[in-house]
Amino acid sequence: MDSSHGPHSHSHTSHGSQTSIHLQPSADGDYESTGATAPAIEIPANSGHGVPSTPTTGYDYQSTAPNPAPTKRSNESKPTSVCKRIRVETSTAPPTAASCSPPVSPTSGAESSRSECAVERSSSHRSKPSGTKPPGRSKSLPATFRKRRRTQDSLQQHLPPVTLSTLQELDLSEIYRNPKLRHDVVFDAQLHFRPNLDGSRGRRKREQADIYWKLVLHECEMLFANVRNRQARVARMAVKLPTLFKTMKDILSTLVPKSDRDEVEAALDHQLLMQQLEHGVLDFKKLSQWLAGVLKAHCAPMRDQWVEQMVSRVTYGVDNQMTSALVDGLKMVFGILEAMKLDVANHQIRTLRPHLVSTAVHFEQNYFQERIESGRLDMSEPRTWFQNAMKEGTEQYVAFTEATTQLLIPSKYSVYPATFTFDFERLDGIRDDIREATCLKLAILFFRQLTLASKRDMDAATVDNLRAKLLAILSEEEGPYRWIKGSNAVALHIAQAAHEFNGNSGFVDATMVKVAEGWFDKHLRVNSPIYVRVEQDVVKDVTTLVLAIMKGWSSLSTSPIMQAADLTGSSVQLTSISQRIAHIAFLHWRIFSKLYLSS
Average pLDDT for residues 316-342, to the nearest whole number? Predict the structure, then answer.
């Protein structure tokens, strides 16, 4: 991938060829570098169609929208036995790398950048019935395949946590062929990649990275000791360093223009570097300075401090004879190369978003059509769902919109049709917001009931203030039954607010608090008749707003998808909920209407 000077790049300065690099006796060093500018973007010819490649899982993407979504609230009515998600085919990526955040201090020492490693060991001793043979070699694969797999596993142990393979899913071609990403970018203008280090998989990646860098440290200590003792053929002892230098060269070559690749190839020739190391003439300080020049010429300015910290760390390691500092620097290099690649990918997404959005309908129509033809998507259930929603005398898209809204009723937990596979999380979030809006309306209604005696008019400011305080009270509650868990706190606040609204001072009577607690404990549950009635009113209002929005979009001469994509937010206001439902429904109808209507 060629690199051009993007909006955040430095002016490029040429760098001379690398001079001889000397290893000072008993010296150590380390590297650190920073992010790259985005390359010139060429749209692949087949970007709008074709079966997408299987996405890997080394990186995740998220939004940086100004109003992030609230903490996930699992709906109280969700049956635990219902499995409604359809997994998009994924393949496990090799362990990914180092963190992309720069170190706090350039002289923080090895302990600050290498966490303690916990090795997960799987027990190989399992109870066997008496008389059975001891476990032997697996016969699930032919001997040739078993040998090949062992060879691949052995080679994998010598690879750095960041390689061209682990970064592959950030390539432009992979972005174009990732159907979930292309669908999500329609709804989120701030979508960006980040390292996927969450959960148990992320923990394993970090642990494996720690193990790798500890082994590199051990190898470097042995090599440098042999260099000082002038023992011959020390390079033969190196297993990880040659691969490390080669991987560094390969990644950096993809992040610089073609005009600079020859210089990178020459300066990071792993065979030459290992020969220099063997003869004690590899100067890590000069190598780090050369890297700093190349990286600063092609990275975003915000990475400059990281580059300077790398140079300082290398100098500190060499001058103080600390091998651990050298390994820290190598680790920094790969973390920064990963950051550079992420910068490139995120710039590509921002630049190409208009094209991705404008081709979203055509791309997904082809994608799902190929899944149907290959038997991986059964349209019988989605068609049945749509046919059951049709009413005589009702327009087709109106019936579809009403049916889509009905899927989101919290008290009637419906399974989403398989055609919504890319929108499950968005629909869950909207369903949670409908639950929030219903509970808030219940709380406001109870507050009005308690303040009837005052005969005072309740203005919009009072309602908004009460709503904001209730959400603040519940912000400490997470997970399922959020409103149920916080019902006593809600009841106390409503009772006290009504007490003050009625013109009283001091604290509300304990009897009134008990009444409020009993009322909320009963009617915040989805099986309460009052809750169901209020929920029906909320859904009816939302449906009316959604239909009005979609009617306005349908009358436009141009596609409103790009305009609708900017209508983001996670507010429990009915207007926000309606806009998000309308956006999903409008795009979905454009993609699947012909499939729903075909027999």
Answer: 87
